[in-house]
Design a protein that fits this description.
Layout lengths: L1 H42 L4 E6 L4 H12 L3 E5 L4 H7 L9 E5 L2 E5 L3 H10 L5 E4 L21 E6 L5 E7 L6
The structure holds copper (II) ion.
């Protein structure tokens, strides 16, 4: 009768400890499982962006890298962007070097990743965002190569009828 008794006294505190350990571990485990999902939502890692550009466009590549650095998952089509731009209905005068699609919205040109994220959060009724031309100082058109010049430019919210309003302004001269 000594052995079973010894077994019980040994086993009882052990199982109690194991249960306590499990109870403290479970919430941590749940938090650990939920964390990657939260991180993805915050960084936009799970957000896919499809880009059309000319294969020789260097500033397009730099913009793609800007988007990737901000957590977007970018797929590139080196087919040029004129056809896709007109197919998607963006007026030629708002055109730039690359056209992209994200979450059902069009992106034209060097649109900052932060504005893309704001667009996806606000979900306005619109065709998308455009930075016409290639303003120096916009993402992919910036840095030492451009002498760190930062020209003023606007990110435009483009309606389906082609009309625009300023979504965000950058590098504006301070009012004098
Ligand atoms: Cu460009």
């Amino acid at each position: 009768m000594q052995t079973p008794h010894a077994f019980t006294t040994l086993a009882a505190p052990h199982s109690g400890l194991a249960r306590r350990r499990l109870l403290t571990t479970l919430p941590l485990l749940a938090a650990a499982l939920a964390a990657p999902r939260l991180v993805r939502a915050a960084t936009g890692t799970s957000t896919a962006v499809e880009v059309w550009k000319d294969p020789s466009c260097g500033c397009c590549k730099d913009w793609v890298e800007h988007m990737q650095a901000n957590g977007f998952k970018v797929t590139v089509h080196d087919t040029g962007n004129n056809a896709v731009r007109s197919r998607l209905g963006l007026p030629q005068k708002l055109g730039s070097c690359h056209t992209a699609l994200v979450g059902g919205y069009l992106l034209e040109g060097h649109v900052p990743a932060s504005d893309v994220r704001a667009l996806l959060q606000q979900k306005p009724k619109a065709l998308g965002l455009a930075v016409p031309g290639m303003p120096v100082g916009s993402p992919g058109m910036d840095g030492a190569v451009y002498g760190n010049r930062r020209d003023p430019y606007d990110v435009l919210l483009v309606a389906r009828d082609g009309s625009t309003r300023v979504f965000k302004s950058y590098n504006q001269k301070a009012a004098s």
